[in-house]
Amino acid sequence: MRIALVQFNPVFGRRDENASRLAGLCRSVPADVYIMPELALSGYQFASREECIALGESEDSPRIALLQRTAAELDACIIFGFAENAEGGPYNSALALLPDGQKVLYRKSHLFYRETLHFEPGDTGFRVFPFRGANIGIAICFDWFFPESFRTLALMGADLIAHCSNLVLPYCQQADFAQAVQNHIFIATANRVGVEARTGEALRFAGGSVLVGPRGDYLLKAPEESEAVLAADIDPSAARNKNINEFNNIFAMRRPELYAALMNGLPASSGETGTESPQSRAPSTP
Predict the structure, then answer these.
(1) Which one, of 145, 144, 151, lies nearest residue 128 by Cα?
(2) Per-residue pLDDT of the chain (286 residues; tens, 9 = 90+)
(3) Residue 285: inside a domain, yes or no?
(4) What is the CA radius of gyration of the chain?
(5) Catalytic site residue 201?
(6) Which of 82, 92, 124, 191 sits CB 3.0–4.6 Å from 108 for a disulfide?
(7) Closest among 121, 119, 114, 120 to 199, alpha carbons compared
(8) What is the DSSP letter of 193?
(9) Out of 77, 141, 164, 172, which one is annotated catalytic?
(10) Facing residues of 230 across strands?
(11) Which of 77, 108, 115, 172 is catalytic?
């Protein structure tokens, strides 16, 4: 299976142009699966919730229809992030478009910084879907910061995590090494590049998209400042043997009875008082 990372610099608000350029970038490199950044159709830095809604998409919008036709034309799966207008939303979402017309929707579980002002927390739960013999999970940007996210997708059977991102620091690309090894899976982080400074705060996106294998090998590394479409072949079945030696299987040896703290809420020492506003949090680690 050939995986392509589409590292892209969307122009804020120019949705038709962004969708058309994404389709063209897909045509430039043959692949079975194309993975694109978070909020790839709209850009990232919304000034208000109302602007987020105005630049949002329904699942049958003209931009998504164009990418659906592109998936059919290329006989490939296209996975991208977008601002979704839907009941209960808006949501920071990702959509997998399969060449036969099927769609798999995921809504971001962990909103970062000012996203909390514009979007509702995702309500889909984590999603894994089959495509050409591979099981593909979907995650969006800040989801990576919670290792339970990728572990959950791996336990759901994901061979590959398609991670649509708008990262401003390189920590995630470094952490992908550990999460790929810990879960013995492939991780594809598709990041964006460019600068947005629409709300009095300049964000420079870090690029550096990566594809990491189950043993921590970096199969693809994109540049930090320029657009790129890079592709590599993977064998999804390589993610299914969880044995690291004859005595240790990383999933069979799990002891969920010891992990109750994961389900018991915040410890008293966490510093979470419920009084800190989203505006007061510094945008240090998406």
Answers:
(1) 151
(2) 999 999 999 999 999 999 999 999 999 999 999 999 999 999 999 999 999 999 999 999 999 999 999 999 999 999 999 999 999 999 999 999 999 999 999 999 999 999 999 999 999 999 999 999 999 999 999 999 999 999 999 999 999 999 999 999 999 999 999 999 999 999 999 999 999 999 999 999 999 999 999 999 999 999 999 999 999 999 999 999 999 999 999 999 999 999 999 888 777 665 554 444 444 444 555 6
(3) no
(4) 18
(5) no
(6) 92
(7) 114
(8) -
(9) 141
(10) 5
(11) 108
CA distances from 111 to 108, 121, 237 (A): 7, 6, 32
Q: Is residue 16 part of a domain?
A: yes
The structure tokens 């791996």 sit at 154
SS3 label, residue 268 = helix
Cα 102 versus chain centre, distance: 19
Active site annotation includes 242: no
Tokens 């657009």 -> residue: 227
Domain count, the chain: 1
Based on the residue annotation, tell me whether 38 is a catalytic residue of this protein.
yes
Asked if the structure places residue 81 within a domain, the reply is: yes
Cis peptide before 90 (omega within 30 of 0): yes
pTM: 0.93
CATH number of the domain residue 43 falls in? 3.60.110.10
Query: Residues 154, 136: contact at Cβ < 8 Å?
Result: no
166 SS3 class: coil
Q: Which domain holds residue 126?
A: 2-280
Whether residue 286 lies inside any domain: the answer is: no
